[in-house]
Amino acid sequence: MALNGDVWQNLSYTKKVALLGSLRTDCSFIIGRGVNAKIIGAHKSILSRGSTVFESMFNGNYQEANNNAPIPLPNVEDFADFKVILEYVYYKKMPLLDKISLERLKHVSYLADYFLLDEIVTNCHIKVVKYAAENVINLYDFVQLFEYEKRHKLDSIYVKTEQRTSIPLVEFKNTCWFDSKELLQNSSIYDLSGLDFYDLLLLPVLKLTEIERFILIENYAKINNLNMDEFVINKVSDDEDIEDKPKLISPTKEITLNEMFDLIIFSKMTAKEFKKGPASSRIWNISPEEKLEIALQLCKV
């Protein structure tokens, strides 16, 4: 039995489930590699109606349009993730993202982005934001690993949570939303490697004040038993491509605490903030004369 994709889209979920068993598949996909590979049957008309990528695949001048052989999807590693895409295309069924780990969420979001399913991408982004307060490190890794297209600027979406009435989702390309006050209270960030912690301090969406940035660096030094001239080892593997990192510091695998303190623009502090933080700090090891000079300059402002 064949079915027009437009007709399918207008059916209820119950009717779709009941009807699907009688529909003959006319295309198939290879998911995975080697002995773990699976062949999944599907329906061209339904897929084409649900995603413009599938529509181009089956109706354009591509090999897949006229070839009945299984179509390999090398960018799909796990059938469970591809199943999320199929269930959405077939039934408009939004995945239960609360049941998905952050690592899987990355892959689902990637596939949704690949097949131009913006609703899933948006919901994945929202779910990532909800992880922020509880798991800063994984969230930071997530936004660094995954590159979003410019078309996924989300400027007007608000997320309700238990702690806040709303969270604005802003530019989601290489960074994500954080609350700097929560960040200061989250001890897990001090487990980051030196370079990752350095990069974190420069994320514009954090909107850190200079005194907040100073406190973060000082806490990082205390917790990791570092002094000003000591190298902070960056935990990247030898085979990692350093060129892929943001051009924030020289492409080495270690950074000094002194380089972190160099990020601070002390002229943007108030005299009171400077007295309470840098002036009394034993970690920021500069001469009393230098500290006094900065304090006097701030008093003139």
Automatic annotation (TrEMBL):
It comes from Ceratitis capitata. GO terms for biological process: neurogenesis. It comes from the Eukaryota. This is (Mediterranean fruit fly) hypothetical protein. The gene is BTB6A. Residues 25-98 form the BTB domain. Pfam families: BTB. GO terms for cellular component: cytosol.
